[in-house]
Structure formats: C-alpha cells, structure tokens
Q: What sequence folds into this?
C-alpha cells in the first residue's frame, strides 16, 4: 500500500515543461479524380516543420510517447473536420528531440469533393 502511495505521490510531484514549435511552410490544393468514378475531388498537401524537445516528459514511468499533428478545417456545409496528417512514436529519451521537415504522411482529402 505504501508503494502505491509513493507512486501516486511521485506522479503528482513530477512537472514537465516540454518546448516545441510547428510551422506550416506551404499548403497546396490539387484537383484530382478517382479511378473508379468520374467524381472530381481536391487533395491537399501540407508541408511543415516541427521542432520540439520532449526529453522532460521521460521519467521512470514513461515507456513511450505518441505524437501526432492534426489538421482542422470546416467544409462547405459548415462541418468541422479533424484529420491526423502526421504521427510518430518516440520510444527512447534519446529520440525525444524532434526536428522534422516533412509533408503530410496521410492523404488529406475531403469527402465533399472540395475544401472551399
């Protein structure tokens, strides 16, 4: 019982202040068509830079971190959409300094055919 109390207390005393920054370098929208149908759609490519130092988040009880970058937009019908465009799993403290220059890892396409 004392061990559980010590674990709970150590979690309350642990304070981390990770620092990070995300910069969007470009957003490009291209018209496309599906192979099976003649429906026209728009596909978006997002280029971004991520810099972060997440080493303060690692302590005795942290096994891994799940990171993701999410794009949020409102379509023509006024519906808010959230889409994960990049993710990474950080398994070691040595890998917790993030410096990424990339584009969206997952396709960003609206089901309503356009982003406008």
A:
């Amino acid at each position: 019982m004392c061990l559980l109390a010590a674990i709970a207390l150590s979690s309350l005393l642990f304070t981390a202040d990770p620092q990070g920054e995300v910069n969007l370098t470009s957003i490009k929208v291209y018209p496309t068509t599906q192979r099976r149908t003649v429906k026209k759609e728009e596909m978006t490519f997002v280029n971004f830079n991520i810099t972060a130092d997440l080493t303060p988040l690692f302590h005795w009880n942290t096994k891994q971190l799940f990171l993701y970058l999410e794009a949020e937009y409102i379509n023509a019908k006024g519906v808010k959409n959230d889409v994960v465009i990049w993710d990474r799993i950080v398994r070691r403290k040595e890998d917790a300094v993030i410096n990424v220059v990339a584009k969206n890892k997952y396709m960003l396409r609206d089901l309503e055919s356009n982003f406008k």
